[in-house]
Amino acid sequence: MFENLSPLPADSILGLLNQYRQDPNPSKVDLGVGVYKDPQGHTPILECVKTAEAHRLKTEETKVYIGPTGSQDFNSLITELNFGADHQVIDSNRVRTVSTPGGTGALRVAADFITRCKKNAVIWVSDPTWANHTGLFETAGLTVKVYPYYDYDNKTLKFNEMIECLKQVSKDDFVLLHACCHNPSGMDLTKAQWDQVVALTRDVGFTPLIDMAYQGFGINEVEDAYGVRKMAAAVENMILCSSCSKNFGLYRERIGSCSIISKNTAQADIAFSVLLYVVRCLYSMPPAHGAAIVETILGSSELNQQWLDELKVMRDRINGNRKILVDALHAKQSDRDFSFIANQKGMFSFLGVNQAQVTQLKDEFSIYMVDSSRISIAGITEDNVSYIADSVAKVI
Ligand code: LMR
Fold first, then answer.
1. Most buried residue, 3, 24, 160, 346, by CB count within 10 Å?
2. Same domain, 265 and 169
């Protein structure tokens, strides 16, 4: 039976991690997977997380099953963080949230929920989008189509083309939008553009699925949720997938959430029953540890403030890295303008070199990035930025 299998390629992002780890070059640079790194190139555990874990160790009383919804406290607090505590979907009891194994788990729950709404549903994703979106949705039985988004030549958005394309989408389709810190391009919608997309979503009637994996890494945790909150206030049905991997630094604990907004409470209860069925069939119930940490932080005004401060440190460092990279690239060569990198948001940007140059950077200089030339800005440090800029100048 198993001889029927054909090998599949390693994941385009996670596959780089292994290659990087095995590379003996002391000058190697990891600009691949999207994880925060401090100036020493280390991914630290946040202090607020350590405090919450110590508290958890003292107060946890049982390891009994938690149930498909995960922690109710986490679900309430994360819903308030995502939508804003006084959002009308919370006041009107139209939103239902489950804890999920990371943001990817949330997306897979959402995909299975969508197939319960409509068999063989179509989901539209931005061109480009996170490399795992397509495989994840197709594996769940959805048909994936793309709408124009990033203009590689001009390093900006193809906003008019995006709008024209979305006008043609069927009201029975789903459209995936990135809340902030677009992965992989770093190009976000402005508030005015979000307003237009929200109005269009309501007019055309398709269902939005918003992926918010980087809340707090763009401008701040409130501004980054502008599109989410605006959309939720305007439409009857919406899905939100969020992740605590980056903003709480809880990558390996696998904690995220999937929220379903329905047009009224009765409909929300039905949607919730479907959500629970989907979860039970996929993985029965989520792990509890990450949720316990997040709910301890969000439930304490002191820890919450500490988290916001630590989140700001991570955000400021990434924005600072954008600037030092642009300065270093410009100092090493004068032919190309890289200033767009400083204006983009979040963990990623495209460097804008071709695939042969990406391979050359990896093979000759041990600088690792995704084939599309997506770089993880957090991997840049004061120590390696000059080496990166020098190597890039050599390959272009
Ligand atoms: C990334 O895009 O690098 C991150 O979201 C990590 C992942 O799982 O791909």
1. 346
2. yes
